[in-house]
Amino acid sequence: MNLSLYGYDGDWIAVDCGMMIRQDLPDQPLQIPDVEHLAAHAMSPSAVFITHGHEDHLGALAWIWPRWNCPVYATPLAIELLRAKFIEQGLRTDALKPVQPGTCVTSGAFEVTFLPVTHSIPESCALSLVTPRHRVLHTGDWKLDERPLIGAPLSASQFETLAPVDLVVADSTNADVEGHSRSETEAASALEAVIQNCRGRVVVSCFASNIARIKALGGIAERSGRRVALLGRSMERMVSIALQLGYLDDFPPRVPTHDLGYLYPEEVLIIATGSQGEPRSALSRMAQGRHPALDLQPQDDVIFSARAIPGNERQIERLKAGFKRLGVNVHDEHTDPALHASGHPAREELRQLYRWLKPKLLLPVHGEASHQEAHRELAADLGIHVPHLVRNGTVLALEAETLVVRTQHHLRPQLIGSRARAGDPTQPVSARKHSHSLSIALNVLPTETGWTRIGRLLWDSEIALPLDEDSLADWLDERIDTIPAETLLQLRQQLFGPLRDWLRERLPALPEIHLQLMPADPQPEYEVRSVHSR
Fold this sequence. Notes:
This protein is α/β, with parallel strands linked by helices. About 25% of the residues lie in helices and about 25% in strands. The chain has three domains: about 5-180 and about 340-430, Ribonuclease Z/Hydroxyacylglutathione hydrolase-like (Metallo-beta-lactamase, Chain A); about 185-330, Metallo-hydrolase/oxidoreductase (Rossmann fold); about 435-520, no CATH class. Strands 8-9-10-11-12-19 form a six-stranded mixed β-sheet, with helices on one face. It has a five-stranded mixed β-sheet with strand order 1-2-5-6-7, with helices on one face. Strand 3 and strand 4 form a beta hairpin. The relative contact order is 0.12. Residues about 425-435 and about 530-534 have low confidence and may be disordered. It comes from Salinicola socius. Keywords: Exonuclease, Hydrolase, Metal-binding, Nuclease, RNA-binding, Zinc.
């Protein structure tokens, strides 16, 4: 999830408002930010600014916006995605204000400028936030792509003119990876090389939001004599919006799903969602031989052109195993790392950005704790001060040329059903039931024999607890290593009871326990290329 708040002299704005899928809970509910405390502290925003159209940056807004009832500024693609969500929830859409990249919007004491950047979805922007006393850059998600398939390369001059900035709030997702991210053009070339050698049906699975990848596949299909079909509701919806906005004007006509079975295999290229092993996806049904429109045959090809979201590795491997049992050829980052390109900057790109901006301070965000630590080390090598690595709920003040911690809010899990639809209550239900609660979050990584904990143990309580963090961490490490779980949900189910018993023995009163398992990133090297190979 992503939600940042910026305040100056009583004026507040919000940047992004995303959601996440809780893979460690039954039915994979959606978790949205906890904003219940904002009004009581006079921190409710008078405007929301969205950096780009990914779910973890805008997906929760339809649930939270009724509390704020304020204008929402975003580029046209993100606005259309939000419009669909607002209509689904029965909300009026006149608050959605489309702006073009490069536009400056004034909200209270803030001048907010949308600075176009390259990312894995079009119209992504960093935000320049200027007040009477400060110049801050909020990077959002970005990368340096000299050869993007949609839009122009990132402009150095738009950042150089900002220098020096007081603070950069910066993407850390690939801050532990040396080199430079791969271009979308390279990913498209790798896809074409593989597809040209395929003799049967070709199924390519990628994220629906990667319109550049979809555009490239349309061209590849035409050059290889194949006709295109789309599988997946999110894919159909995203392509429809992209066509409406003119991003896919040259996309070839699509074959209806029910006609796929009538075409020769060598004439078919299917673009599908489901790369993360989602059990109800079209890709999973094909792997199980249960898709109503077609059956894959031996020597057909399935190409995974999307990274594995951490924590999904096991279900993805089961998906691939299903294809292999059918005799289908599987292509992924292991057979060809260039089949996917990251949307986030590696270390050489971060260095370049900071050479342009000349920031006085840096606040690492995004990624896990290990990525933010790596970002701080990189900044220190460049002489950039990083005063804090913060937790969710931290309020910082930018004063006297440093960042000072003002307070720490206790944030509670806010869950909504993954099948919630229009007409359901729009206010999220707090998970809190008792007089106080204890939230524990840990990063876990699947191994060949089980699971292991990675990075810092995070825990938070509304009241002081006589809890020894080292003892808790040691117990968790020992316990997790012995649990033979296949999924995060199974791991949580088998860990929660013993954890509750362990805490009951050591605390005077048992609080309500919120246990969140967060997948750690296993293989970032598949998303980048060496700077020496540019």
